[in-house]
Amino acid sequence: MSTPFDFLQPEFPDVHAGAVKAGAAALSDPRTACFHTRWTVEQAIAWAYEHDPSLPAPWEDGVSARLNEPAFKELIGDKVYRFAREVIRLGNHAAHKSQPLTSHDSVAAVSHLFQFCFWFARTYCRGEKPPADLTFDPKTLPRPALPQPSTIVQIQELQQALEESELARKRVQAELLDRPKLAAELEQVRAEIVEAKARATATPDAHDYSETETRDFFIDLLLGEVGWTLDQPRDREFEVIGMPNSQGNGLVDYVLWGDDGKPLAVVEAKKTKRDARVGQQQAKLYADCLEKAHGRRPVIFYSNGYEHWLWDDTNYPPRAVQGFYKKPELELLVQRRASRKPLASAEIDRAIVERFY
After folding, report:
1. Predicted TM-score of the model (pTM)
2. Which among 47, 173, 193, 202 has the fewest CB atoms less than 10 Å away?
3. Sheet strand arrangement including 299-303
4. How far is CA 349 from the centre of its chain?
């Protein structure tokens, strides 16, 4: 069965195996998936330091020190650095914190891992580089049959076993490298890596690191968790008329409809690495068009998959929220526009307020 990480298999089988394990557990066991994403990044970074002569040994033999070594940070670039750092953070959570992780966390970790592994393969592949248009689609992740989430104790046991295995491998490798032939082979590989890096640098990196597919999957996932099935054509990419552009129309990313056929909310999705608030004005224009067409102003959401903002602009300013509202919650929010009453005109029940306490 093919996986999103197959481009690693020819030259980096160990990194490939870890990435495949992470992807396989993403929807069924978030803790295990996050652990394997971190472990995979650690193995890839360790490989880079072992084979890339341009990387100096950091002050400490650990993934954080290696990741933050200035030479490595410059090589990896800001975008990929953030992906790797977030993978390590989620992996540390999986191994050391008892709070549960969600499928949102694990899919994010696997998506970040894909972007890191693409950079890694593009930089260090001595043979064919991965194509620039390669993308990660979370919809290809295996669906869980009977989820059996692992515990933090099981993850710590797995980590210990992997660390012991890695130490044993390094001992054997150190013994082998004492032999002149194997040491010469390693030097040959390092020379080939220098050439592979030079080829990668000579060609601009045209890969899209925006994680658009992952963002859409996150929003689908979060909307599904609160009951929005998104199974009708009008739920996504809904066309509206009356936009202030040359064509006069636009496509709303998501429209959440009420049982009466009128819109309850619009959702504007922005790229994962952009501030969600960038979509505020666009979402307002979509709400204007929907209100004109259907006679009810929808509540406005804008999100980048990680941060979510709610704006009922008939009464309140925008505010950050943890996720999307269920249909009854949106119906109540809309209904309160008409039923709310000013406190200044509320009658006071003297039988209650005259009590001594």
Report:
1. 0.72
2. 202
3. 236-241, 249-257, 263-269, 299-303, 308-311, 319-321
4. 53
Separation between Cα atoms, residue 27 and residue 131, nearest integer Å: 27
Q: How many C-beta atoms lie closer than 10 Å to residue 57's C-beta?
A: 10
Q: Are strands 299-303 and 263-269 parallel, antiparallel or unpaired?
A: parallel
Q: Is 130 helix (H, G, I), strand (E, B) or coil?
A: coil
Q: For every one of its 357 residues, what pLDDT tens digit does the chain have, with 9 covering 90 and above?
A: 689 999 999 999 999 999 999 999 998 899 999 999 999 999 999 999 989 999 998 888 788 899 999 999 999 999 899 999 999 999 999 989 888 888 888 999 999 999 999 999 999 999 999 999 999 989 889 887 655 678 777 787 777 877 776 676 666 566 555 566 666 677 788 888 888 888 888 888 989 887 777 778 888 888 988 999 898 999 999 999 998 877 888 999 999 999 999 999 999 987 655 555 767 888 999 999 999 999 999 999 998 887 889 999 998 999 999 889 999 999 999 999 988 888 888 888 887 887 776
How far apart are the C-alpha atoms of 135 and 111, rounded to whole Å? 10
Rounded CA separation 322/47 (Å):
38
Helix (H, G, I), strand (E, B) or coil at 229: coil
Look-up of token digits 């472990």: 39
Distance, in Å, from the CA atom of 106 to the CA atom of 2, rounded to the nearest integer, reads: 20
